[in-house]
Every structure is written in C-alpha cells, then in structure tokens.
Amino acid sequence: MKKKITVDLSVKIVKPEWFERLSNFSKIVRVFCWMMRFVNKLRKKPSYDTKTLTVEEKAKAEIILWSIEQKKHFHEKENSVHGLQVVRGDDEVLRVKTRIIERDDDLSFLYPILLPSKHYITECLIREYHLKYCHAGVQILAAKLRLRYWIFSSKRNIRSCVSRCVVCKRFTAKALTTPPIQLPLDRVRESAIFEITGIDLCGPLLLKPRGKAWIVLFTCAVYREIHLEPLTSLSTESSINGVHGQCYKL
Ligand SMILES: [Zn+2]
Questions:
Q1: For residue 177, how far is its CA from the centre of ligand 1 (angstroms)?
Q2: Alpha-carbon gap, residue 143 to 190, rounded angstroms
Q3: 115 alpha carbon to ligand 1 midpoint, in Å?
Q4: Do 205 and 215 form a contact (C-beta atoms < 8 A)?
Q5: Cα 152 to Cα 143: distance, rounded to the nearest angstrom
Q6: d(CA 137, CA 2)
Q7: Interval between CA 103 and ligand 1 midpoint (Å)
Q8: Neighbours of 36 (CB within 10 A)
Q9: Ligand 1 centroid, distance to 137 Cα (angstroms)
Q10: Which of 71, 116, 189, 232 is the most buried (most CB within 10 A)?
Q11: Is pLDDT at 250 greater than 80 in this prediction?
Q12: Cα(241)–Cα(116) distance, integer angstroms
C-alpha cells in the first residue's frame, strides 16, 4: 500500500500598494492630494476648491503620506528607531534628532524626515532627485536628499537607484576595443615620397568678392606628408591640372 504524504504549503499573497502603479514621486503626491480632497469632501471637512492643486496642499499631502508609511515600517520605542533618536512632531511625522540642532538653520535640515529603506516611494524620490539634478552621482544626491530627508542606508539605496538609470549606464559604459591590426605592405615598405598617395577634395571655399575654390589634398601613405593644390572649378580639365601640378612639383 502506498504511503500518503500530505504537504502543507502556505502562500502569502502580497497585494500591491496603490502607489506602485505610479513611477514618479511627484505624481504619487498629486494622486494622494486628489484622494485627500475626495475623502475630505465625503467627510464634509473643509478642503480646497481650486481646479488645480496648490503648493501648500501638496506639501501637506507629502507629510501625511510619509507619516502613513512610517507607521507601517517603523516601531518607535522610547523616542528611538533602530538606535536613531527621533521626535514626532505635531504633523505626526517621525523626524531624526540630529546632533546639529543647536545650529541656526532650516528646521527640515535639523530634523530631517525619517524614510524607510528599500521602499517604493523612497526609490521614486531618489529617482526624482537624480533626474532633477541632471543625473547626479551618489555623493551629490546623498547631500541633496539629506537637506530634507534621512534615509536608512542612504548611500546603498542611492547607489542601487543610480545603477539602474539607463541614461547613466549609456554614459558609463566602456567603449568597445579591438586588437591593433597590422599595417599593409604599402604603408611600411621603403619608397619615394608620394609614391603611394591618397587623394581627397575639400571645399568649396567662398572667395571675395565672388567665386569658389576647392582644395585637392594629397597624402603620402608612408611618410604621412600632405600637399594642398588649389582648384578654381570642378571641371575635368581643372581636376587633371591639379593632379598634374602636384606631379610636376615632385
Ligand atoms: Zn541617470
């Protein structure tokens, strides 16, 4: 009789967040703004009635968005998160208590907003800063973001975002190299000057008060000498004269 084997598999289905449909930080904030307006109207709370979003409204929405995400990712314990001293302001957002709070500076620089690492919105924010500062590198981005935000393992997060930028990849890609090839015999053998010659024509050059001129360029394949012969027309006779002129001089 066959032995029955029962296997218990637990599958956890992670439902994607609403913002994961959007790839742009500004757009996430804007959509969240409209959502807030809608909820406020349903709750009959005072809300903005303008056709476009205001700057204050967007700033407020960003703060609320961060406070919601912070509650999901950080567990504050005696004003500390993973060993970092934090304070919760009136806006319910967690801010890092830096060591420079005695300095007379902007409040968001002294108390930057704490952001979760490897978070979708954080990555969108880094990407937005990267584009805003013309594909800036890791050091510049870290400094610019630090003015307002405190990201856990910020350098690692920024480096990973920058390394995924297609435009930066194109500019940092190594050029293809090929092994040097041997020169043909006509380039290296002993010969008289201009014995092996290449000819090209450049122009037209505009002459004053009127007229055009061209230049026949003779190059010696062995000694790399050059000789220029002027032409005043592109007719067959003129071209032949130009070549003959060079031959006579030699
Ligand atoms: Zn880039």
A1: 24
A2: 62
A3: 22
A4: yes
A5: 14
A6: 63
A7: 34
A8: 19
A9: 8
A10: 116
A11: no
A12: 79
pTM for this predicted structure? 0.67
Alpha-carbon distance of 247 to 96, in angstroms, equals 83
| Dist. CA 150–CA 86, nearest whole Å | 11
C-alpha pair distances (Å), 242 with each of 64, 193, 235: 80, 18, 11
Conformational region of residue 118, where left means phi above 0, alpha means psi within -120 to 50, and beta covers everything else: left
CA angle 52, 55, 56 (to 5 degrees): 115
71-117: per-residue pLDDT in tens?
Answer: 998 887 878 888 888 998 888 899 999 888 888 888 889 999 999 98
Q: What is the DSSP letter of 17?
A: P
Residues 186-227 pLDDT 10s: 888 888 888 899 999 888 889 888 888 899 899 999 998 998
Q: Are 168 and 162 within 8 A, CB to CB?
A: yes
Cα distance between residue 220 and residue 239, in whole Å: 19
